[in-house]
Design brief:
- With about 550 residues, this protein is of the alpha/beta class.
- The chain folds into three domains: about 220 residues, Beta-lactamase (3-Layer(aba) Sandwich), CATH 3.40.710; about 210 residues, D-tyrosyl-trna(Tyr) Deacylase, Chain: A (3-Layer(bba) Sandwich), CATH 3.50.80.20; about 80 residues, no CATH class.
- It is about 30% helix and about 20% strand.
- The strands form five sheets. Strands 3, 4, 5, 6, 14, 15 and 16 form a seven-stranded mixed β-sheet that branches.
- Strand 20 and strand 21 form a beta hairpin.
- Helix 8 crosses helix 9.
Length: about 550
């Protein structure tokens, strides 16, 4: 055998062994790479919940951290979801940081003209909106359901304060000045904000209802009316309609509304054509049914406020020769919303709070060429008390006004886009949130364009714990089984009074984010979001609550 043959023989003899060894090493490496990391008990339990058929088809995102931000569990944490009313947490935190907890807003009634003789005005009386969300009958501060007067079975609940009480008070102040004749108009002025009643992608279906009320710097009674439909005395008889507060504004068309037979149910429908002041109320309500109560949005709040004030002044013996009308300011920013809202605010000072903007039309001392006199005014409750209401009951309009007021204070223009600029500046430059992890088109979350990653929400919740105003802000969050939008959730579990979180629901999207005081005594941060769940189903909410329970028990 020659040398070459010998080498060949040796190679043949050893090759199978070497190949076998290499194959063994590759297999071991592949097994190590392909084997999933050992799941925590919490991860396995959450996975089981999300595998349930009723929720498995939805898209889920979850982020759980310790209070210092240390990760505990995550699922699709960087993907974008519709936050719905979780948006209010970002808006209220920004407004609190910018304006301060004790900021107030002063609504004024001023004259614009001259007095031709004592008590006789040649000009207009103007109600100037300053961004006060609480010119209403709402009780401030917020009272937890457990502390409210008990309703006696069979009796009607006690009536709250009149919806227009503060407007009535200002009308009294005007009457006490001795004003007798207004040779001009009564004007509702909401020019502190440009007239942008509906942010981008608010559904046209929402515009009829109170939760979709238009945004205005002159807001009266949450810019909504209470409409009550009651059955007549017998089937076929006309049903009755009552609008509260009563003011000359909407006309009700009830020609297609009737009383139905006993036990036929409530089939009342309400619609209003865009821009119309006619409410079409149709369908039927059973003769034995309870009255149907609905909250109807006021189409033009400033015009409504002017009409209501005019009627009040006239009832106090003041002659008004003109009409009630609104004064709006049209938007002039022609840039695209995304471009404008992402524009940095280089001079933003985070070491100070900004005073709420004063409407330019309400001059007091230096009026230039105009002659104006303040006849009446009303000062709002402190900002923090309104925030408690806003987050507890998820009040959309108030959240929008926080957004506009922040823009007005910082940038001297209360437009939607300027409010969004301030929120973005706060979240990116102050709270350290990735600018690609969120986009907001409004302040309430009613816009379908709003998107947020769960990790951005968790980061916000972690950041605010480091701020001196954290205790006040946390007080605004609903408490599980206790109040707000969580009053009927977690009440029958060990988590009652231990979950502090903001809810969110919009179409087929849902969110719940906040803090859990766990069984271990430790508090953790969580954000759970889902989208594309089955329409009309609450299975995702049930699954969400189960996951919160698992987090609370595990940590």
């Amino acid at each position: 055998m020659n040398r070459t043959s010998c080498v060949a023989a040796l190679l043949l003899a050893y090759t199978p062994i070497c190949v076998a060894q290499k194959h063994s090493l590759r297999t071991e490496t592949a097994l190590k790479a392909d084997a999933p990391e050992k799941k925590s008990k919490l991860a396995a339990e959450i996975e089981t919940v999300l595998a349930e058929p009723a929720v498995a088809r939805a898209h889920w995102g979850i982020k759980v951290t310790e209070m210092d931000g240390k990760p505990i569990y995550s699922l699709n944490e960087g993907q974008l979801f519709q936050p719905a009313s979780n948006t209010k947490m970002f808006t209220t935190a920004t407004a609190l940081a910018v304006l301060g907890s004790q900021a107030t807003f002063t609504t004024r009634v001023v004259t614009r003209g001259t007095f031709s003789s004592p008590g006789k005005l040649a000009g207009d009386v103007v109600l100037v909106g300053a961004g006060d969300a609480n010119l209403s009958g709402r009780q401030i501060p917020y009272v937890s359901p457990a502390l409210r007067p008990k309703v006696v079975p069979g009796q009607e609940p006690p009536l709250g304060p009149p919806a227009l009480r503060y407007l009535e008070d200002m009308a009294d102040q005007v009457a006490k000045t001795g004003l007798k004749v207004i040779n001009g108009d009564v004007v509702g002025d909401d020019t502190l904000y440009p007239w942008e009643p509906y942010p981008q992608d608010w559904s046209i279906d929402d515009a009829v209802w109170g939760y979709g009320a238009p945004v205005s710097a002159l807001t009266i009674s949450d810019n909504q009316l209470k409409l009550t439909v009651a059955p007549g005395t017998a089937p076929g008889a006309p049903a009755s309609v009552m609008i509260d507060p009563i003011a000359p504004y909407y006309t009700a068309d009830t020609t297609a509304l009737t009383t139905g037979p006993a036990r036929s149910g409530d089939h009342v429908q309400i619609d209003r054509a865009t821009g119309s002041k006619v409410l079409r109320i149709y369908g039927s309500i059973a003769v034995d049914a309870r009255p149907d109560e609905e909250e109807i949005a006021i189409h033009d709040p400033a015009e409504y406020a002017a009409a209501a004030l005019k009627a009040m002044l006239e009832s106090r013996g003041i002659l008004v020769t003109g009409v009630a009308r609104a004064k709006h300011r049209v938007a002039t920013d022609a840039r695209g919303f995304l471009l404008a809202s992402h524009e940095p605010i280089p001079a933003m000072e985070w070491t100070r709070t900004y005073a709420p903007a004063t409407p330019a039309t309400a001059c007091i001392n230096d009026c230039g060429s105009r002659t104006e006199t303040v006849l009446a005014q009303h000062v709002s409750p402190p900002l923090i008390e309104d925030m408690v209401v806003t987050n507890k009951v998820s009040q959309n309009l108030h959240a929008e006004m926080f957004l506009h007021n922040a823009g007005a204070a910082v940038l001297n223009d209360g437009s939607t886009v300027n409010g969004a600029r301030v929120v973005r500046a706060f979240l990116t430059s102050r709270a350290g949130i990735d600018p690609d992890d969120f986009v907001f088109f409004d302040g309430s979350g009613l816009s379908g364009h709003d998107l947020v990653a769960p990790r951005a929400t968790a980061r916000l919740l972690q950041f605010v714990t480091t701020q001196p105003w954290f205790a006040g802000w946390k007080r605004t969050l609903p408490i599980g089984g206790e109040d707000g939008s969580l009053v009927e959730r977690f009440g029958a579990t060990s988590l009652k009074d231990r979950v502090f979180a903001k809810t969110g629901t919009l179409g087929e999207a849902r969110a719940l984010s906040g803090y859990i005081e766990c069984a271990s005594g430790k508090t953790v941060i969580f954000s759970i979001m889902d989208s594309a769940h089955t329409p009309g189903s609450s299975a995702d909410r049930i699954a969400m609550d189960k996951i919160v329970g698992l987090i609370g028990a595990a940590e």
